[in-house]
Amino acid sequence: MTRVPKIVPWTSTEEYVGVGECLYSQDLSEQKRGVAVVKAWRARARVPPAIDATANLVEAMVADHELGVSISQQRHMYAMVLIRFVNSIVDLEQKGVYAQSMASLASRIGMPAWFVELRHACTHEQIPSLAVLRSTCTQALHWLDDYYWKKQSRTLPADTMDRVRAAISDYVSAYQTVKSLAQGSGTNAPEVAAFETAKASLKKLLEVLHSDAVRLYVVPVLLEPGALVPEDKRQRAKFPECAMPPGLARQWSGLLRLLSEVWSESLIYEELLAGILGALLPESNDLGIFETSASALSTSHAATLVAWVRWILAKHYSPDNTETSTVGIDSLLETCLRNPGYYSRAVLKVVADIDSSLKRELKIFVDFMGKALAALVAADSKAKKNAMLSEATLKEEEDLMQQRLNSVLGADTEPMDVDAALPDPSEPSVQPAANRWSRVPCDLWSACPIGTLGDSSIPELDLPAYLDDIPLQLEA
Fold this sequence. Notes:
It is a single chain. The model is unreliable at 284-289 and 472-476 (pLDDT under 50). With 476 residues, this protein is mostly helical. The longest helix is centred in the C-terminal third of the chain and has 29 residues, at 359-387. It has helices spanning 13-23, 28-44, 49-66, 71-90, 102-109, 113-124, 130-155, 160-183, 189-207, 212-222, 248-262, 265-280, 299-316, 330-338, 342-354, 359-387, 391-409, 418-421.
């Protein structure tokens, strides 16, 4: 049965979880950021009442810390927020023909009765004190955290990646066992039962996840070493052919079909292509053209990923009729052209082989990347060769520098002995050379205040009188 899509204001599960963490952060700036994001959500679509109430309560507490308003204004602000909180949450349970009391509805959802009583007091009686309102606001946030945010987080547990990884591993293992038995004498009932159990378990897990799980969990698991890319390098593809290794596509075709049944082929293969390109090409915008990151993939790993790109496009991309194609290549081409390099060049060559209509246009970029990469390799090789100086070259450089030093010091024949050139401090005096600095003997030194001359006199630093008539050029 096709699930009806639900429109939500957040763009991904990560954004939703991040806003919840911001609203319950102890950092005031993080709380402001969470409130600002919820305000943006309100402009996109209807925000769930629990999220809206949480943002209003947090905004009131932030304003209490920053705004210099009177106590009466603070009390009215808290009262309005708490009234809205109780009404928005409790009214969700008002589903019958006849209206029920707020107290009965609150007890049904587990809301403390004194929340309803305080709401009644703020509406019809005297507004409670500021201390009571502040405490109630804090308690309301704790209640929302327990009855909404934590329950929502349990539907997206932190170990979702581990559960998806384990379920996929069990399914693939059982699938391979059944396939190998089918190619032999036949299948055994226990193995078939184990495969059906693993399939049902994986399908049940995937069906409760949002479609964002394809990008957040499924694709990262498939791109781990040992999945779509075998850990044994002998079973991987090789450049420049990037041909799919024998049996690799058949090994994972069953899982990919199951994923397409749960979601759709378009979603699965579009996200898989995006994940492969993200693994192949540099992620940092600080990298220069044709520059690779320190965590670049090995050659065989990258060649296998390129082989998967070829397989996906060959199976699910139709150059003659793009309307019937499961995947498109516009985003793929843009990513490769924006990140030129050896791996993006290999992907472009794959696209040119599959779509002959683009072969002529892509050949220009492929040839340019090839020439640029060859030039970079040659320049790098030349730089390494120049950096590797032989011992003889180093000796020649050392002799040349010694000759220049002797020439400067006036000793053309003998190398300078640095230790012998230093004066002996025990000698009473050192005869100064005609054209050299000399050190005054230690017994002739005398201490003087900083800024004075040797005789403790202050130097005259005034400008000459003839400079008094020259106007000074002051900076603006």
